UniProtKB/TrEMBL annotation:
The keyword Protease belongs to this UniProt entry's keyword annotation: yes
Protein name: Aminopeptidase N
Family: Belongs to the peptidase M1 family.
Domain Peptidase M1 alanyl aminopeptidase C-terminal: 558-877
NCBIfam families documented for this protein: pepN_proteo
Reactions performed catalytically: Release of an N-terminal amino acid, Xaa-|-Yaa- from a peptide, amide or arylamide. Xaa is preferably Ala, but may be most amino acids including Pro (slow action). When a terminal hydrophobic residue is followed by a prolyl residue, the two may be released as an intact Xaa-Pro dipeptide
Transmembrane segments: none
Record-listed E.C. numbers: 3.4.11.2
Positions of the Peptidase M1 alanyl aminopeptidase Ig-like fold domain: 451-553
Organism of provenance: Pseudovibrio ascidiaceicola
Length: 878
């Protein structure tokens, strides 16, 4: 083991800097291998700080060329410069100018943090701590400053020069083949929102006028030749801007809004002020290369980054422990946007599937942490489903508890009170309290206490007394670092469903805070009695998934089927089906023959064929829980082979039993002649393809031919990739031919080939790892581009449960190899991959032994591990 021990950063150690940075002037002399960065900071001592206090700036991998104060070079004894910091021991005045020159190499920057080159395009990624890889600075979110950036570059290779804020000047640099541009951002901001881009880019443009009449130029820059694939993003951007004006009263605040798509990017996108930089996966779309879910993802991410302009940029975070202040809130906002643009219940189902598949496993394993953590070693590791998606759920609960109007009052106060601030979660919650004269201290526990609560509910009806009694209990198991748990404040939306499917009214309720269809559980155990109930109800609890908990109702199967058919809350109709499927699948995994299976399959057929329901909803209704979801539900001594086999057998059984229904729906769904990504068309495709999947699973006569015909006839990526997946997953005749034909068609289009890599990585195989190794040699794959790695390796880890958790440990070994290899070039990506070990403790004993050995091998490898990977592996082994 040859890694340095990373420092534990603690919230309680937070201290303001002794100096403030009044303004920043940056000059970038861009060169592929040696870019010079001249930074001039106007610094002044903060009130209360001692005169002459040392100035300590952050750096990472930096080479200092020179340092001067107020025009005079510093003597060597006046400062200390290492790759990681610059210390000026005793600044000569309370206010002074510091001029620092550093040199960086964009070409060899494989971490994709700081300044790097992606396909000949210079770009930056500074969140969370990338700015310190460009120049020495107070690289922390609570130091806000006004930035002016001058960019100089070769005219021929970099005709486009972009920075934050508004363009101020541009021109040729006389006597050279270079030119410059100056950008000025009037809004004070932390360094993580800094960005620049230079390159030979094409763009599409629109004019936008804000609600109050200010014109804004909108531009989306892409690699030349991709202009036509950016229209959907532009459309999404314009709709996002209108929506934020209408729903939150927030307008844009600069003359221009630029978006740039680059192909090498670690995450989805970045909200740099006035210059969002995107992973091209979230900008580029046309019907031939993008699926319906890609279109949806683009709409969501474009909106998300735009919404950050207010929630993140104008109001930023005091330190990174407050990350959910901007991320949870902004995810909530993008979810609401998509709900308003599409179908609200369908969007809610999609968001809950995402939460349960990503956040629940995290919160129930060794990587569990609070939405607002109090310590970390590597901040990059905390851009998690918990911070983002559970963070959004917490904001949603505030809205549920307060109601829409009072929620808006709190948001208005937040924008008014904290505009220009680096804030905290406490500040945020206080706004809802002050705007509504209410105490949210009990609710706030959600931000600090980790883990997924289990809520148990048991109802009983007393016919004589006309009362319905609901016994509620919340169970909060210990999580890492939190042995003792307090009860959460849990809002439960509910209905008492009467025999004809309508909700029954109650005359009064006692035992908990109950108001209309909202019940709030605040203790470990509570008994709620509803009076005036005329007939035996079936309780429908946690409607709209009103809290991020695991609900156990113990309802008999016939009651679940009843809810599946009759609940007025579409979310809970879907949930009832999911609960039943999960129960049945667990019993099938254990080798027993469950009761009620046939009745369930019949009800599923009804749901699939119910013309009163949204197509997309019916598609989701038919979806079996994933192998991972079943594994999480089983929770311990998991045998992934047994789960996978049971799930395959069950989908075959459903496919056989409902073959006629699926075929009828499949045949009846006519698609328009030209592709459109709108929600209705996408929903029809989803339902049709779900039917095709069951037909393929049935392995009945003609099912292979139908899947192959669907593939051959596809005029869009959604149909093509889904049909291909059916052929490959069920090992149907024509699968190989279809793989080859897809490859031939999309060869050279990276984002399309990513999907092919994903299908290949999840294909059943006797030698999964051998197949993967071969695929890494394919020309469509590259270890240098995160999207290729997420497609192939991520496709394996997330989409090939039996392969990754193979009993012989080969999958774990492969992940250990890959982690060690990737860590040398891109620790952020390596760390995201290694997180797949997060569920290892749930596996059965044989698998645990193999997983633990693989994890230990990473720690003990003869190479310097990044703090990113080391922290995750150590948490997993803890
Ligand atoms: N703030 C970005 C978002 O909108 C996340 C992000 C983009 C990021 N790039 C990053 C986080 C690099 C850490 C490192 O969600
Ligand atoms: Zn974000």
């Amino acid at each position: 083991m040859r890694s340095e021990t990373a420092q534990l950063i603690k919230l309680q150690d937070y201290k303001e800097t002794p100096y403030v940075i009044e303004n920043v002037s940056l000059v970038f002399k861009l060169q592929p291998e040696a870019t010079e960065v001249i930074s001039t900071l106007t610094l002044s001592k903060r009130e209360g700080a001692e005169a002459g206090t040392a100035l300590e700036l952050d750096g990472d991998d930096l080479t200092l060329t020179s340092v001067a104060i107020d025009g005079a070079a510093l003597a060597e004894s006046d400062y200390e410069a290492t790759p990681k910091k610059l210390v000026v021991h005793a600044p000569p005045a309370d206010r002074f100018q510091l001029e620092v020159v550093t040199k960086v190499n964009p070409t060899t920057n494989t971490k994709l943090e700081g300044l790097y080159l992606s396909q000949g395009i210079y770009c930056t990624q500074c969140e969370a701590e990338g700015f310190r890889r460009i120049t020495y600075y107070y690289d922390r979110p609570d130091v806000l400053s006004v930035f002016t950036t001058r960019i100089e570059a070769d005219k021929a290779s970099s005709p486009i020069l972009l920075g934050n804020g508004n363009p101020q000047a541009s021109g040729d640099i006389e006597g050279t083949d270079r030119h410059f541009a100056v950008w000025h951002d009037p809004h004070p901001k932390p360094a993580y929102l800094f960005a620049l881009v230079a390159g030979d880019l094409a763009c599409i443009s629109e004019k936008y006028t804000t609600a109050s009449g200010t014109p804004v130029d909108l531009n989306i820059f892409v690699e030349k030749g991709n202009e036509e694939r950016a229209d959907w993003s532009m459309d999404s951007l314009i709709r996002s801007m209108r929506w934020d004006e209408k729903v939150f009263g927030r307008e844009y605040d600069l003359d221009v809004f630029n978006i740039v798509a680059v192909s090498a990017f670690n995450m989805g996108a970045m909200e740099n002020k006035g210059l969002n930089i995107f992973n091209d996966k979230y900008i580029l779309a046309d019907s031939d290369t993008a699926t319906d879910s890609d279109y949806e993802g683009i709409e969501t991410v474009v909106a998300h980054e735009y919404f950050h302009n207010w929630t993140g940029n104008r109001i930023t975070c005091r330190e990174w422990f407050q990350l959910c202040l901007k991320e949870g809130l902004t995810v909530f906002r993008d979810q609401e946007f998509s709900s308003d643009e599409r179908s609200r219940p369908v969007k809610r189902i999609a968001d809950v599937i995402r939460l349960k598949s990503r956040q629940f496993p995290e919160d129930q394993g060794p990587l569990s942490h609070p939405v607002r953590p109090t310590e970390y070693k590597e901040i990059n590791n905390f851009y998690t489903a918990t911070v983002y998606d559970k963070g959004a759920e917490l904001v949603r609960m505030i809205k549920t508890i307060l109601g829409a109007d009072n929620f808006r009052k709190g948001m208005d106060l937040y924008f008014e009170r904290h505009d220009g601030d680096a804030s905290t979660i406490e500040d945020f919650i206080k706004c809802f309290e002050d705007a509504n004269q209410i105490d949210l201290s009990h609710f706030s526990l959600w931000y600090h206490q980790s883990g997924t609560p289990v809520v148990k509910a048991k109802g009983s009806y007393d016919e004589a007394a006309k009362t319905f009694t609901l016994d509620l209990e919340q169970i909060n198991a210990p999580t890492p670092g939190q042995d003792q748990k307090k009860p959460f404040f849990i809002p439960i939306r509910f209905g008492l469903v009467g025999p004809n499917g309508d909700d029954l009214a109650y005359s009064s309720a006692e035992g908990a805070q109950v108001d209309g269809d909202l019940l709030c559980l605040s203790d470990n155990k509570q008994t709620v009695i509803f009076h005036g109930i005329g007939s035996r109800p079936v309780p429908s609890l946690l409607r709209e998934f009103s809290a991020p908990v695991k609900l156990e109702t113990g309802l008999p199967r016939e009651d679940q089927i009843f809810l599946m058919r009759h609940d007025i809350d579409p979310f809970n109709r879907w949930q009832a089906a999911q609960t039943l499927m999960t129960e049945l699948l667990i019993e099938l995994t254990n080798g027993s023959e469950p009761t009620g299976k046939d009745a369930f399959i019949e009800a599923l057929g009804h749901m699939a064929a119910d013309e009163n329901l949204d197509h997309a909803f019916r598609g989701f209704g038919l979806m079996l829980p994933s192998e991972q979801a079943i594994a999480l539900e089983i929770g311990k001594d998991v045998d992934t082979d047994a789960i996978g086999n049971a799930r395959d057998a069950f989908s075959k059984e459903i496919g056989v039993a409902l073959y006629d229904t699926f075929k009828r729906i499949y045949d009846a769904l006519e698609m328009p002649a030209t592709f459109s990504p709108d929600a209705l068309s996408a929903g029809k495709r989803a339902l049709k393809l779900r039917c095709l999947t069951y037909i393929a699973a049935s392995a009945g006569e003609g099912s292979a031919a139908l899947a192959k015909a669907h593939f051959d006839a596809a005029d869009n990526m959604t149909d093509r990739i889904s049909a291909l997946n059916c052929l490959v997953k069920f090992e149907l005749a024509g699968a190989q031919e279809a793989m080859a034909s897809f490859e031939e068609r999309h060869n050279g289009t990276a984002l399309a080939m990513d999907k092919w890599l994903g299908v290949a990585a999840s294909a059943p195989s006797k030698d999964t790892i051998g197949a993967l190794r071969t695929l890494t040699e394919h020309s469509a794959f590259s270890w240098d581009n995160p999207n290729r790695i997420y497609a192939l390796i991520g496709g394996f880890l997330g989409g090939n449960t039996r392969g990754f958790h193979a009993a012989d440990g080969s999958g774990y070994d492969y992940l250990a190899d890959i982690t060690l290899q990737l860590d040398k070039t891109n620790p952020q990506v390596a760390s995201r991959m290694v997180k797949s070990f997060g569920t290892w403790k749930n596996m059965n004993a044989d698998r645990r032994v193999k997983a633990e050995a693989a994890l230990k091998r990473i720690l003990e490898a003869d190479q310097q591990l990044s703090t990113d990977v080391k922290e995750i592996v150590e948490l997993c082994l803890d």
